[in-house]
Here is the input.
Amino acid sequence: QVQLVESGGGLVQAGGSLRLSCASSRSIFSINPMGWYRQAPGKQREWVAVSSTGGSTNYADSVKGRFTISRDNAKNTVYLQMNSLKPEDTAVYYCNGVEMYRTYWGQGTQVTVSS
Here is the structure.
């Protein structure tokens, strides 16, 4: 069983930055891929970014060039650096990981971007 705990959310003005963290209860070497999703009020959860143990990353078009996903294997943590935030980035952000064909989710962290 893997537990994922997100942190780093908050309230920020448009154009600002936040860094989200996702700490895993187990080594992330075996959790592949790991990624971030978000869910805005009244909308379906959508994929934001993904990172594989091989080092490859991929991003949704809506965040490409503004968000960066990274992994710190020593700390068993995945990060999402969010720059140039927009009001439409407001959502609950969830960390996601797949290990041995099982999918794990964190509890989510709220990000609110004011205009």
